[in-house]
Amino acid sequence: VEGLRLLEEIFDSDFKLEHLFYCPPSTLSERARTFLNRCHEANIPVEKIDRTTLNRLSDTIHSQGFIGVAKIPRSTPETVTHSSGHNLVALNNVKDPGNLGTIIRTAGWFGLDGVMLSKTSVEFTNPKVIRASMGAVFHLPIYPDVDLSRQLNHFIKNEYRIFSADVHAEKSIYDIDFGRRNVFIFGNETSGIDAPLRALSTSVKIPRFGKAESLNVAISAGIILSEFKRRH
Amino acid sequence: VEGLRLLEEIFDSDFKLEHLFYCPPSTLSERARTFLNRCHEANIPVEKIDRTTLNRLSDTIHSQGFIGVAKIPRSTPETVTHSSGHNLVALNNVKDPGNLGTIIRTAGWFGLDGVMLSKTSVEFTNPKVIRASMGAVFHLPIYPDVDLSRQLNHFIKNEYRIFSADVHAEKSIYDIDFGRRNVFIFGNETSGIDAPLRALSTSVKIPRFGKAESLNVAISAGIILSEFKRRH
Questions:
Q1: How far apart are CA A62 and CA A49, in angstroms?
Q2: A108 CA to chain B: closest CA distance, Å?
Q3: Which residue of A10, A70, A202, B215 shows the fewest CB atoms closer than 10 Å?
Q4: Within an 8 Å CB–CB cutoff, is residue B178 touching chain A?
Q5: DSSP assignment string, A75-93
Q6: CA–CA separation, B179 and B174 (whole Å)
């Protein structure tokens, strides 16, 4: 986890900051000083590193100089099955870390209850995902490595409605009826949603009014979740 | 412009392909052969390059081996003033090329009539913008270097309604009335929309239902343009 803003959010989450590396800047901001004090009070090992080491650890070009290692609270498919969450996002083979982070951020904004990831999706612990989520990854239950077919069958038995975002669908997201409990599936950037998952769900489209061939998957997720919350 | 898919789209646009560099792969696909024939017929200079030169020219890690140079049909603020387009996007200081490209792609999907860019926004000719737009940049009028205050005043006199996406707005995008002609302003990733532009417009928000602090600017644009088209 890189950058003060994201590191601060760990303290208010179920993640556990285990180690902090920092490359002391020429002057330490008030915010940085407060954060270092907080680490000290929480007995988190703080290790000074030089610029060369920082650049080796860092994922960004202009690093602020603060990099932390945090322990992830593992959410398993079993916890999603027994969660009290009634509206979830399921991601089938989403590969781009920016897209995954942005979808988590958006699901957090709209108050969804969690995000399930197929085994083939990019890992949510990828630093680019954490960054694009703007910290939402710390506050929303993320369920990695989920066998989506199995999980969706379980949800269907429990009266969830399952929707697939599909550019070729007949039904428009503006017209469909949502359930009391819902799962929204979004698929791969190129190939969309796998056929077995589509077969378990109602395909919905975002109507097109112009010439572009498709929408970015995170944009589709934003539009569909907005439409859901507007009417739910 | 990099990659066969994007290069093909240039031919159906007002952009003019002026030069093609390509690094011959071990086997040339049918699609690549067709494209090279098309370049030949259009008298476009085609230059073979080696892998080292390709990597120097390329902006991606796994280049497909096709890079073109295209002439941009310059749209000026004057052309936007006299355009027949009645629904436009205005971007005030949007800095991330991925966000700009995605917003152009989304504006293309929803059939907006063009995208105006403030002088301080990232250049739309940035290869990352072209890529994220998935070619939409070739089919939608883009107006760079626009003095937005001046331009918006002109639009207001011509009975356009101007909306600013603002996380702190009182009015919800789900409730406001759109005009017959509309401009939608989206702002900087960190600082939002400049005060003088906000003063010329109606601020609208996307209601929050969860805990996340903000939405990505391209997601906001997607949701607002979707809501507009749904009701317009």
A1: 16
A2: 5
A3: A202
A4: no
A5: --HHHHHT----EEEEESS
A6: 14
Task: Please answer yes or no on whether B213 and A106 come within 8 Å at the CB atom.
Answer: no
pLDDT in tens, A43-60: 999 999 999 999 888 877
ipTM computed for the complex: 0.91
CB contact burial B9-22 (16+ within 10 A = b; e otherwise): bbeeeebebeebbb
pTM of the model: 0.92
Nearest-CB residue to B98 (from A98, A107, A139): A98
Q: How do the residues of chain B divide into helix, strand and coil, expressed in percent and rounded to 5?
A: 35, 20, 45
Closest partner residue to A216 (CB to CB) among B105, B135, B213 is B105
| B219 vs B198: CA distance, rounded Å | 20
| Nearest-angstrom CA–CA distance, A103 and A99 | 6
Contact flag A219-B214 (C-beta cutoff 8 Å): no
Q: Which of A18, A16, A20, A146 is nearest to A81 (CA)?
A: A146
Encode pLDDT of B137-185 as tens digits: 999 999 999 999 999 999 999 999 999 999 999 999 999 999 999 999 9
